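Work through what follows:
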Amino acid sequence: MKIAALATFAATLVAASAAHAVVVPFGGGAVDTDPLGHTWVASNTPQPGFGEPGLGLGVITFNPGDLSSGAGDWANRFAFIFLEGVTGGIDQANTTFQDVTTGEIWATQFFSNDKVVFTAAPGSRINAGDKFFVNVAFTGAVDTDKFSFAGLWTDIATGVPEPTTWALMLSGFGLAGVALRRRRVALAA
């Protein structure tokens, strides 16, 4: 019975690591404001691109509080997929996300010509009120009348534990198992 309780507890720990996510599709012009209140710009100058607040136009404040989605007040991953209005693909050399408050430039992954994901370093995140910018440059022109995209931000609290975390957790479960076994042997004697 106690072993079943330990197994249930372990399953609960793993299930508790689920992420909150917000997906926001928007577009249809060259300048707009996303549902978080962030201004974004799609332009062909100085080069074709998209940015919050605009390609090379400064920084903005992360403000997730305007959404009643149940997601937290911080994020450690942003993803963008560009739906219409972009010819060519993403210019990987000139695409970046930076948390200006901490100075951290997030890791960038390119999944196709129209999808990019920015991820904070393990243990890092952007909090409500932090300053940031995101710039995505394109290899072809932007049709500012048709430009549209979807954005996703997530707040994965634990993600995948590091190997040392797994080792510590498994050691704890092993010690609990040894204690239960010794207790059972002592009661039988």
Summary: The longest strand covers residues 90-99.
